[in-house]
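Hi R.,

Here's the input for the S-adenosylmethionine complex you asked about:
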Amino acid sequence: MAQTITAATLASSLSEERFQRYYEEAGPDYAAWSPGFNMHFGYYRSGMNPFDREAMLEQMNCEVLDRLRISSGGAPRVLDMGCGLGATLRTIARKLPNAELHGITLVPWQLEQGRRLNQSAAGTSHIRLALANYEDTGYPSMNYDAVYALESSCYGTGSGKSRLIREAHRLLRPGGRLVVADGFISQGRFRGPQRAIFRKLCECWVIETLGDIRAFAEELRNAGFRDITVERMQAGVSPSVFHVPFVTMKFLLTDVLFGPRKMTQARWNNVLAPVLLPLVGFPVGPLAYFLVSATRA
Ligand SMILES: C[S@@+](CC[C@H](N)C(=O)[O-])C[C@H]1O[C@@H](n2cnc3c(N)ncnc32)[C@H](O)[C@@H]1O
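And here is the predicted structure with S-adenosylmethionine in place:
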């Protein structure tokens, strides 16, 4: 038994080390995707320019904000669970100047860079970033009006992401809103080599497993959320996914061939993962992009 615990502890500290190394080494490369460090896919609404990637990335932040249903009066408290460099919080800060905005990440480099970006952007003094684990923040219960996780829930434990959901539920006041936007395993099964491709994709992004959309919705119900809405966002997300080959090509020609930083395994993994994504995602499946929103009862 003692040996099992030691092996499990060792495995978890090795994966923690790989996670930190991935974000420290590949983190700066996200600048090739988004100058504002929006570390997620975008959302296209009709009338937008589909070639303007940053506008679509910003629109995804707005889609999340809309579903949080924050009233404009008062001083709402909002938590970003897995904030990266805080790009979404900066979008929200511009729209809600009275809000108290908090973001947590596990990566010290992101915290440092996120604070630097906040200092150089106007109207962001009400953003606070901190190092904390979204599965066990240690923050007081019922402390927030709204909580969201934008492409960070995939790092939660298990396919139902129950620890993340239960912590979000504990942190929200009754009536408070949770919004999660991410890739999930949807209906259908992995076919042929897809399971191996999926495992490689998870390894590249240092993810244990993506959430399973049905298990996730079930966990929300079990935790005490109501008014649960599951939206498949593929059509809105695809225009930004089409940017991946062009960004990758440009990155290879500029940063890889002539860039000053040595290419490491973590940086190569960050190049490979988005290339693998279409082989298990849209249009073949079974991965798909969802926006899930719910209210704490
Ligand atoms: C792909 S990035 C997305 C960042 C940000 N939401 C965005 O869209 O720009 C994933 C983020 O989740 C964070 N993360 C992963 N697991 C976490 C955990 N257990 N607690 C807090 N943050 C976590 C990572 O540190 C990283 O900031």
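One thing worth noting: The first helix runs from residue 2 to 26.

Cheers,
M.
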